[in-house]
Write the structure tokens for this entry.
Amino acid sequence: MPEPIPQYSVEIEQLSFSRGDRPIYTDINMRFPKGKVTAIMGPSGIGKTTLLRLIGGQIKPDSGSIVFRGHNIPTLGRKKLYQVRQDMSMLFQSGALFTDMSVFDNVAFAIREHTKLPEDIIRTMVLLKLEAVGLRGARDLMPHELSGGMARRAALARAIALDPKLIMYDEPFAGQDPISMGVIVRLIKQLNDSLGLTSIVVSHDVPEVMSIADFVYIIADQRVIGKGTPQELLDHESPLVQQFMQGLPDGPVPFHFKAEDYHCELLGGVK
Amino acid sequence: MILNMLQSIGAGVFDRIGGVGRASIMLFGALFGIPSIRKGFPLFVRQIYVVGVQSLTIIMVSGLFIGMVLALQGYTVLVDYGAEDSLGPMVGLSLLRELGPVVTGLLFAGRAGSALTAEIGLMKSTEQLSSMEMMAIDPLRRVIAPRFWAGLFCMPLLAIIFSTIGILGGHLVGVEWLGIDGGNFWSIMQSKVDLVDDVFNGVIKSIVFAIVVTWISLYKGYNAVPTADGISKATTDTVVQASLAILGLDFVLTVFMFSS
Ligand SMILES: Nc1ncnc2c1ncn2[C@@H]1O[C@H](COP(=O)(O)OP(=O)(O)OP(=O)(O)O)[C@@H](O)[C@H]1O
Ligand SMILES: [Mg+2]
């Protein structure tokens, strides 16, 4: 009997994580289907970046499991973890380009480190990726010579350099003009479909996310408050989800970081 | 009250031990972390340039002046006893045994150590180290190891250069300016300076200082709080702690090496 083909690239079960005394996640379950684009949305500061770091094994959860291609990430030793990471890639929220290298070398970095390809093949690979994000002409610039949006696109080219099995994009659309935004949206979809990889997209841009995601998670209050296909979420009956999808400031989702009563604090604690 | 105090002291001690433990694990990772000769060597060479070659000027200028001042001061004392011919060994011994390794270490901490801390701290705060980790490239091997080996390799050489130039500076003042006999300057120095006891022990000192300074610099950068003032504090810590460590260790090493 053939082995059943696993359906999910990443499976998160009963995951809890806290920063100091502040819980970020309590017992959440999430699954990211193979070969699909899964979006994660949620208010700022809720722990989306943290979730990507948990999947990447950069921080360890308090409890629960994160299974990526059969490996339970939190239990892996250092060596194994580095091996597993070769199959994933992450676009950092800040871009995180290596400041001592040109755009070209940034994109070529992982290829040079992990393969023994000759330099002319690397050149072709890098130029292809740079062309895809519209930065082929900027290959000799240093990161400090790029604008914020260009830096993020360069980082995107770097993240896809080695065609990984899983790509995590942390806010890929932030700071992009409508044209680049459209290009990036299509690029993410296209990469996902043509290479059959799994994409996790963290973003606040509801229409863009809805246009490419196969499945969406909305998280708030340390848990998943809504999940489903974009259409299901648009029709979701939960007021929490509706507030988020329509971007209303007032509603069940608190916009403010947990604090004392506003008026009370302004008056110096006098009730 | 007392219990609280004991508790906080205890916690502090554990913190320290934990810190030292983390530091040693890091050092260990760096020491045995040269990935491969093909990839590691160019990184190592580049760091030799940054850490070593770029420190050459300050080391040479300082060496020259310290040698000259040493000769000048030594001469004014020795000449009263008619012992100015001993200026050679005096300058040579103080440079080779003490000033070479110690002053080089202090300058190295200020010039290269602080730069290493700031560079690595900034790489951390801009998530460059994290993104390297996510690319399955261990920053300990890629970033820390070449810098550690380069520091270890360069500092003893810089100390030797420092002492050599210092002795030439002493010769300049003693022989060329104050008129001591040049033959005596060199020959008495040669007879008084022992290759193993003086030159070799000085080099051992500078190797020890190199390990300590480079290690502190890298550790402070790698564990810096990733903010502007976190990095500024880490850089200051590097210079202060490395300098104190050098002076303390120098005393200990001197007791072992030269007192019998
Ligand atoms: N290094 C850290 N130390 C302590 N707390 C942290 C740290 N990093 C993040 N946090 C906290 O964890 C929470 C989640 O942070 P995270 O960066 O994951 O948010 P996010 O959902 O990505 O927000 P945004 O959409 O603004 O990027 C935040 O409330 C933040 O205060
Ligand atoms: Mg974030």
